[in-house]
């Protein structure tokens, strides 16, 4: 067995770290709140000591906008899930859930059934760190799947997934780590599994221009864009989870539409600055805008009868 401190969960820890840093901001200045993130972060005591401002400043030295990008992704999905749950979705599938605690930290209707899907090793580690008195715990089922090798359908059905109910599905920060075929087959399976149920699908993807035109992935004047693009790409490889798949917007739209999902939104941090950061006095300047990952929402073309 490897003695790495990361056991398939290095990137999940990385995202949890940014959520913890954000949670340390003053309540009227923070964009998201994740009271559980700290449990999954190595060196959390040091981050607590440094506080929000210094921790964000240090992250900026690595890549301006990196923290805000991940936080805007979390907030965008929080809003989407809350809106969908309030308007009648009865099930929520979190694909590649990692250390996402949305099922417990958002105020979701008790009737919403949540299915968390990830690699079994990551789920075991997650569950060992969760508090005993977790809100909404009885509504969450854990489904252990490797997207590159296994199919989801059987496991989701065995876990009690109901094909007739309206469902929201999120694939957050995952498509870059799995093969394009695995992303395509996951979307296909979910489209078939949720057929006629009026589902909503969220997927994030890394823009393929990162490879041939890195400057396009950042705001105007972003410092050392090409070099930074390389550093960011290598960061996850260092914890054993390299980025292997990149998409262009048309490719994603086609993939979704071939599976009965119509694209309704495609956003980056540049689009969410006004909505999330300006109101809390933290507007991100153009030369710190980080937009190499897109946040896409699609709706299934069919509705429940
Ligand atoms: C960057 S983390 C994102 C976690 C979570 N969605 C978030 O945003 O906090 C990527 C997640 O994808 C999961 N993942 C990567 N490859 C996978 C695979 N082949 N099958 C299932 N899950 C996978 C990892 O275990 C990890 O939890």
TrEMBL record:
Protein name in the entry: S-adenosyl-L-methionine-dependent methyltransferase
EC number: 2.1.1.-
Function of the molecule: Exhibits S-adenosyl-L-methionine-dependent methyltransferase activity.
InterPro entries, per the entry: Ppm1/Ppm2/Tcmp (IPR007213), SAM-dependent_MTases_sf (IPR029063), SAM_mthyl_Trfase_ML2640-like (IPR011610)
GO terms classed as biological process: methylation
Key words, A-Z: Methyltransferase, S-adenosyl-L-methionine, Transferase
A Pfam family it matches: LCM
Family the entry assigns: Belongs to the UPF0677 family.
Key word Transferase present: yes
Listed GO MF terms: methyltransferase activity
SUPFAM superfamilies the UniProt entry points to: S-adenosyl-L-methionine-dependent methyltransferases
Species the sequence originates in: Vibrio coralliirubri
Source lineage: Bacteria, Pseudomonadati, Pseudomonadota, Gammaproteobacteria, Vibrionales
């Amino acid at each position: 067995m490897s003695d790495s401190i990361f056991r398939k969960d290095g990137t999940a820890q990385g995202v949890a770290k940014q959520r913890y840093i954000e949670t340390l901001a003053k309540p009227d200045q923070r964009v998201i709140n994740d009271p559980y993130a700290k449990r999954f972060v190595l060196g959390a005591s040091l981050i607590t000591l440094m506080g929000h401002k210094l921790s964000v400043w240090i992250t900026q030295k690595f890549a301006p906008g990196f923290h805000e990008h991940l936080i805007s992704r979390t907030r965008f999905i929080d809003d989407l899930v809350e809106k969908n749950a309030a308007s009648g979705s009865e099930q929520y599938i979190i694909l590649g859930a990692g250390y996402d605690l949305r099922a417990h930290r958002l105020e979701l209707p008790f009737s919403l059934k949540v299915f968390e899907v990830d690699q079994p090793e990551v789920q075991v580690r997650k569950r060992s760190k969760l508090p005993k008195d977790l809100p909404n715990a009885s509504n969450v089922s854990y489904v252990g799947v490797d997207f590159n090798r296994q199919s989801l359908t059987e496991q989701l059905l065995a876990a009690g997934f109901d094909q007739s109910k309206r469902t929201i599905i999120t694939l957050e920060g995952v498509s870059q780590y799995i093969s394009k075929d695995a992303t395509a087959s996951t979307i296909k399976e979910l489209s078939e599994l949720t057929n006629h149920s009026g589902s909503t699908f969220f997927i994030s993807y890394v823009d393929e221009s990162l490879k041939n035109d890195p400057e396009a992935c950042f705001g105007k004047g972003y410092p050392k864009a090409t070099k930074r693009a390389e550093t960011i790409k290598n960061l996850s490889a260092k914890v054993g989870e390299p980025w292997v798949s990149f998409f262009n917007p048309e490719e994603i739209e086609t993939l979704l539409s071939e599976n009965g999902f119509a694209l309704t939104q495609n956003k980056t941090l540049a689009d969410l600055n006004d909505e999330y950061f300006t109101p809390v006095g933290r507007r991100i300047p153009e030369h710190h805008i980080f937009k190499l990952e897109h946040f896409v929402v699609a709706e299934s073309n069919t509705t429940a009868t």
